[in-house]
Amino acid sequence: MADFELFAYQKEVVERPLKRENIIIWLPTGGGKTRAAVYVAKRHLETTANAKVVVLANKIHLVNQHYANEFKPFLGNQYKLVKVSGDSEEKDFFGKVIQSTHVIICTAQILHNAMINEEETKHTELSDITLLIIDECHHTHKEEVYNKIMRCYVEKKLNGEQRLPQILGLTASPGTGGMKNLEDAVNHILQICANLDSTIVSTKNCVPELKKNVPKPRKTFDIVEKRQADPFGDHLKRMMQQIHDYMNLPPDVQLRVCGTQEYETDVVKLEKRGVHNNSRVLAQCALHLREYNDALLINDTLQMLDAYQSLEDFYNTKLTTAIDETDNYLERLFQENQVELKDLASNPCFDNPKMAKLESVLLNQFGSGVPSKGILFCKTRKSTHCLNSWVRQNSALKRAGVRAAILTGAGNSINHMTQNEQVDTICNFRQDKLNLLISTSVAEEGLDIPECNLVVRYGLLTNEIAQQQASGRARAKDSQYSVVAQAGGQEVRRERINEALEELTEQAIAKVQSMDDEEFRRTINKLQTDAVLHTALLKEQQKERRNRYPASRVQLLCRNCFKSVASADDIKLLENSHFVNINSDFKTYYKRGEDVFFPKTFENWEPGCRVVCNYCNTKWGFEMKYKDCVILPNMSIKNFALETPAGRMTVRKWKDVPFMVEEFSFEEYCLNNIPNLYD
Hints:
Largest sheet: 7 strands, parallel
CATH superfamily of the largest domain: P-loop containing nucleotide triphosphate hydrolases
């Protein structure tokens, strides 16, 4: 086993967890929270009969990281460890794994799935666990999966159940929960403590040692003046005004300034209103306006050609068929302005000055002759790709030796990285094959890169937690944390607000830590009781919503062309995840598009072709081949409108539909669709 020694400040924060108290360890990023948790786990395994330690992470790369870099080196010689994620076979018999293993490191969703699964080989009770370690535990709130697990814990605790695991939470930044005054921030910290049934601890006696070991980076505001002229952006805004005029906006609709997040919110609401009111003019214009607004946002942050390409890609890849004059008008408007837009976007006289400032910041670090590593944080996956192309094509950055790659969230979508791609990118960064990650927020939490000496936040408006997490990535000596922004812009204001909220968080935690033990426990117990009652009430309300209408009285309409294409009672829930249409007549309403590819395989099904509207080519979902013999259309509810007895409505997720969806029965389906099956 590797040598195991803690700093004095780490020893201080593990004192109470070693006494089997439920504790949240609050240490800054890079302060060694995970190493402290490994120490607690080791002592727990040594002193607890039939010990079962479960370590929860909220991202797959953190599961791999904790297993390989922390728990395996220090515990692997004496204890059996296993890591479990969505790609692991162990997830399918998690109940047996937990019986035969000392330490399980997994995503929170894996544990929650096992808790609600009734199959014996897959099911796990909280009472099977003796120590539950929750990484990035500030996510234990609202409907996050951490909180679903802990809600079950709290309910059992209030019901007097004794066999519950010890809880150990780890966080660098509990935040204020959006609160701006001390009293509300204190209440937020108390709610986190209540959700985790834990007390929050930090170092008191060893602060100088902590500051020495976790130095803060030098923070710079790298400010640029607003560009003197923006003819490309101005042209986009004139086109948007033409669309406004064409729509003949209702008097009660007020759209805010173009090129802002607020405007995007307004047009999202406008599209829903168009669907509800059976107005394709409003709905379609709103969809196109959102694309123009995205182009303006890109123009504000990236290159003009990136903004132009975004809009061109939308019109080139828009497969829906023009079905009325609104579609014709919108497509014609872009085509008539396309050449001029491209010419304006190609004019270097009006380049975005933020890009020049970003280049300067990167060259100051990477061109200094000192071996460097950096992370460039930006808002969207699209931004990461645009910036990566810019870095690779920039001759000055090439000469400085910048070797960049993208790091975004893992998922099944074509726009996501695969889990293997994530792991490979992080590995290459650690091994110096790469020295710049261009990342979305996925790299803010937990990424173990102590030698990173430059962090740049570019075009970001986030809360104080994300800001602290990003700043904590710059851990090397004399590291820099740069905010590249426009003078007087929202980014600078947000950064200053977050600095104040960071101080408020510290004050709120100090206030909670100074509370009398009896008062603290009384407050926590009340918050837990209220939370359980609130959850029960929400479940009842959700049940009422789901029973608002019989499924037979709700029709599904294509969200684009408003054609009625299915009855809601044809929809069944397959394996608690997929909403499929079992009516064989449904195939007359759709046609098959391109093949769908997922970067992983599934136990009982495989993806087939894209399902698109037969009338307007709107994507609805994809066909899935179930048990090698049944083809079922898997439907995405966000692509449909619902015609109910009370009028038309839209929902983003299936959990919000106002009718009950029955579970899919393979046997019943076969009996109804295979003639003479048992004759």
